[in-house]
Automatic annotation (TrEMBL):
<dbReference type="GO" id="GO:0008861">
    <property type="term" value="F:formate C-acetyltransferase activity"/>
</dbReference>
<dbReference type="Pfam" id="PF02901">
    <property type="entry name" value="PFL-like"/>
</dbReference>
<keyword id="KW-0670">Pyruvate</keyword>
<protein>
    <submittedName>
        <fullName>Pyruvate formate-lyase</fullName>
        <ecNumber>2.3.1.54</ecNumber>
    </submittedName>
</protein>
<dbReference type="InterPro" id="IPR004184">
    <property type="entry name" value="PFL_dom"/>
</dbReference>
<keyword id="KW-0456">Lyase</keyword>
<feature type="domain" description="PFL">
    <location>
        <begin position="1"/>
        <end position="148"/>
    </location>
</feature>
<dbReference type="GO" id="GO:0016829">
    <property type="term" value="F:lyase activity"/>
</dbReference>
<keyword id="KW-0808">Transferase</keyword>
<dbReference type="InterPro" id="IPR050244">
    <property type="entry name" value="Auton_GlycylRad_Cofactor"/>
</dbReference>
<keyword id="KW-0012">Acyltransferase</keyword>
<dbReference type="GO" id="GO:0005829">
    <property type="term" value="C:cytosol"/>
</dbReference>
Length: 148
């Protein structure tokens, strides 16, 4: 670590090394990929509330889920989610800068700070298992009685 970050470094967030006073990391909450997969299957609607959360398209209502269709929709939903996630983080951190929420901490940094942004995900293993089950298993989709 010393050859890359020098003698004065620390670990920020989970695993990111940074030069003290010269770098900072914006942290973003985790995106939920398992929920994203549900949005892809349910046409962008939340299955609990029925609210339209993501871009609207027809839900998959067939008894058996087609892997290629689900994967294509999931890719589209992830593209929407990534754009929404980054735009939201940019707004949050812009407002931090605009209203100087962290002015005391920033007073301890050099004038020109190198900033990075941490983006995290949750539910990756759930999505991997779900897509594998859709592709390789035989069985019907689970829908609420109102949707049949």
């Amino acid at each position: 670590m010393r050859p890359q970050y020098g003698d004065d470094y620390a670990i920020a967030c989970c695993v990111s090394a940074m030069r003290i006073g010269k770098q900072m990391q914006f942290f973003g909450a985790r995106v939920n990929l398992a929920k994203t997969l549900l949005y892809a299957i349910n046409g962008g609607k939340d299955e609990n509330s029925g609210d339209q959360i993501a871009p609207q398209f027809p839900p998959i209502t067939t008894e058996y889920l087609d892997y290629d269709e689900v994967r294509a929709r999931f890719q589209e939903m992830m593209a929407w989610l990534a754009k929404t996630y980054i735009n939201t983080l940019n707004v949050i951190h812009y407002m931090h800068d605009k209203y100087c929420y962290e002015r005391l901490e920033m007073a301890l940094h050099d004038r020109d700070v190198y900033r990075t942004m941490a983006c995290k995900i949750a539910g990756l293993s759930v999505v991997a298992d779900s897509l594998s089950a859709i592709k390789h298993a035989s069985g019907g989709s689970c829908q609420s009685p109102n949707e049949r």
